[in-house]
Protein: Universal stress protein
Amino acid sequence: MPRPITAGVDGSPESAAAAAWAAREAVRRGLPLRLVHVGEPAPEGLALAADEAAQARWARDLLAGTERELSARHPRLSIATQAHDDGAADTLVAEAHDAELLALGSRGHGALVGFLLGSVGQRVVAAAERPVVLVRSDDEAGAEAAGRDVVVGQEGDPQDSAAVLEFAFRTAAARRARLRAVRAWSLPPVFAYSPASLELLDEAGGMEPQEKRALALALAPWRERFPDVPVIEHVEIGSAGQVLLSVAPPAQLLVVGRRARRTAVGARIGSVAHAVLHHSSCPVAVVPHG
Structure:
């Protein structure tokens, strides 16, 4: 059974944009859509049965109304709905586990036009085992028009970035979009230099050519697998977050990776994903990888 594209809906303009984004993506990929509402339970002893019943009716009406609206736009799209009344973050993480991807609305944006992630959104992005896409309330279908790239950040060796690149190539193929693959590099600290490392750099012709070869090597298997996806390779000195944000404004989607491992303080988003989530003006997909 194919994994659905799943969207969290809560009645906000941001979640409506995320549901609309998810519906378009489901149509492109030929996948079903799953709409999920997650309500936070009231503290024990404070909620009346009537209030709980009213909340349940509201959730059902919200899901039914969203389903009707999206079905009118996409008549052939298969849509399922589910309402939960337990903890939002844990439930959304569980929903993401069975999804091709999970789309969530951002909580608006600030003076720097980036995403404002609430605590639930941060926990879901940090813990989900599948890609999570954050969508702003002002996202529109027109932003996905031809001419706008899908941008992906590549770092590390080919194995490190395989999941991120696969998602980016698959998304670009479904959208018939060009893919811009970005690799940022920086000068190593002085203590990292050694006669052996300098000799390798000299043989490679310097650091930038070496970084270009590393990017080309990581892209090679995916270019072969998705030959119809045009690719631009972009290598630039600077921090990964800054370089990605410098090329992201005209993009229709920005794809970044997140190491799927827990630290002593729990799961973390990572510095690159954190930077683009807080400052990107287009939807951002965060893809976990090993």
